[in-house]
From TrEMBL:
Protein name per Swiss-Prot or TrEMBL: Cytochrome c oxidase subunit 2
UniProt cross-references to SUPFAM superfamilies, sorted A to Z: Cupredoxins, Cytochrome c, Cytochrome c oxidase subunit II-like, transmembrane region
InterPro entries: CcO_II, CcO_II-like_C, Copper_CuA, Cupredoxin, Cyt_c-like_dom, Cyt_c-like_dom_sf, Cyt_c_oxidase_su2, Cyt_c_oxidase_su2_TM_dom
Keyword match Electron transport: yes
Membrane topology per record: Multi-pass membrane protein
Cofactor note: Binds a copper A center.
Organism: Salisediminibacterium beveridgei
Length: 325
């Protein structure tokens, strides 16, 4: 899956963690090579020879050797421990670093709330809520507060940062930056129920101006999208949405928060976190949610509840929920 690897670091946090991985790997390779060279040397030099009854010199109690093979591991451990400890403190510091950054708003605070089996992204400084897709500006410190609504989850965007747990009743914090625009895949890495493996999300990095426009449009979405013109198929779909979906899903300022916010649903690339976005998959998902995401709280809608004509109208309405031009 694209960008789902810590070995392709994007940004300062991922670079630091990749450097630690590389350092530990180099140290392990060095130790392995030295041990095998010594092993091969001893194997050849002190091998048994026909007629040779000579016993090699014993080194037990040799103070010089004991100091050497005690000192070398200590040095290797220090080489590994010092940068680890330094980076740990750097990564744990989620505060804005300077007064200038505070004044320039050169950071974005996002509250990441995990649910079975979806992700909620609150932007308190912008007064908006998003679901499944987390938009961020490039070259900006992203300060993350991690919470959970139900069981323990774990937030992981491997190309940007290491994983951190979402624990019920506890708020953990982390930060990262994305220097390049793009879509970065994320996953839950804590077994959280039957659909844990389907609890995917995306981090969408855009330039700061595009992010500001996105945030503004999310806060005040187009009336054309949220309230289609009367007499259109999308308007009929909105009525179905109001009857069946609004209590759990918000569009703009209207609706509940039991499920993901759908204000920009029509711009997503996937449905339910992993299904390719198309009308067939969307209808299949709405008809039988447990088939595609076992354990999800979202109900399924039979033909008796929403007939084919109403379903087509609902899909037309959902497809039109877009905030970007």
């Amino acid at each position: 899956m694209e960008n789902l690897s810590a070995l392709d670091p994007q940004g300062p946090v991922a670079d630091m963690q990749y450097s630690l991985i590389a350092l530990s790997l180099y140290i392990m390779i060095f130790v392995l090579v030295v041990v095998f060279l010594i092993y091969i040397f001893v194997l050849i030099k002190f091998r048994e020879r026909p007629g040779d009854t000579h016993i090699p010199k014993q080194v037990h109690g040799n103070r010089t050797l004991e100091i050497i093979w005690t000192t070398i591991p200590i040095i290797l451990l220090l080489m590994l421990a010092v940068p680890n400890v330094m980076d740990t403190f750097t990564l744990a510091n989620t505060s804005v670093m300077t007064e200038e950054e505070e004044e320039e708003m050169d950071h974005v605070h996002i509250e990441v709330i995990a649910h079975q089996f979806w992700w909620e992204f609150n932007y308190p400084d912008h007064d908006i809520v998003a679901g499944q897709d987390m938009y961020i500006p490039t070259d900006t410190r992203i300060i993350i507060s991690l919470e959970s609504e139900d069981v323990q989850h774990s937030f992981w965007v491997p190309a940007l940062a290491g994983k951190q747990d979402n624990v019920p009743g506890i708020t953990n914090e982390m930060w990262f930056e994305a220097p390049n625009e793009g879509v970065y895949m994320g996953k839950c890495t804590e077994l959280c129920g039957p659909s844990h493996w389907l609890m995917d999300f995306k981090v969408v990095a855009v330039d700061p101006d595009a992010f500001d426009q996105w945030a503004e449009n999310m806060a005040e979405p187009s009336e054309t999208a949220t309230h289609p013109e009367e007499g259109t198929v999308a308007a009929d779909g909105r009525e179905v949405f109001q009857d069946s979906c609004i209590s759990c899903h918000a569009v703009g300022e209207d609706g509940g928060a039991t499920g993901p916010n759908l204000t920009n649903f029509g711009e997503r690339q996937v449905i339910a976190g992993y299904l390719e976005y198309n009308e067939e998959n969307l209808e299949n998902w709405l008809r039988d949610t447990q088939e595609y995401k076992p354990g999800a709280d979202m109900p399924s809608y039979s033909q008796e509840q929403i007939d084919d004509e109403e379903m087509a109208a609902l899909i037309e309405y959902l497809n039109g929920l877009k905030i970007l031009d």
